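To: structure desk
From: M.T.
Subject: fold request, one chain
Message: Could you run this one when you get a chance? Sequence is below, nothing fancy, just the single chain.
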Amino acid sequence: MFDPTIFENLKVALENQVYDLDNIERKIIITNRVDQIDLSILAREFSVQFTLVSSRDVTAEIVLMASLDELAGEILELPGTNLGCSLLLRFYKQVQNFPIQCKIIEQNLNDIWEDDVELSQTLSFLFNQEEPSYLDTIEVKFTRKINEEHMGDIEDFLEHVLETLEELHSI
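Reply: Done. Structure tokens follow.
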């Protein structure tokens, strides 16, 4: 009998709640979904991108990842292994006054996400653009692995993602 992995169980639970926010609650619009197996390193990755219905200028992306070590440790039932998945959030926002806006973004996201995250911002721009604007790719990387014990936290997690989208829209 097939026993789904931690990755599969988390992916289905996360995907269901995100799609409920789109189809039932109509708070978000899903703009992209990726479910990949990297055969060169035997890793899994699931991501879903979405915007708020009320403001589409900021995009959120939730990325769930499992490496070969996590998948093999679970399937082979290796003792003493820290099994789970990695979780990463990305937000995409256009900024004009990046020295000020990026500092505000950092402060506000640290207030929302508090502990156990690594926050980074990467700026890019199009050459010869008439009005200079920068794409700020904001990454919120969770330092702890997640597993099925965290399924009950998905609803609160998604509320924080929505709060972050609203906050980024207001900056």
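Reply (cont.): The radius of gyration is 17 Å. Let me know if you need anything else for the meeting.
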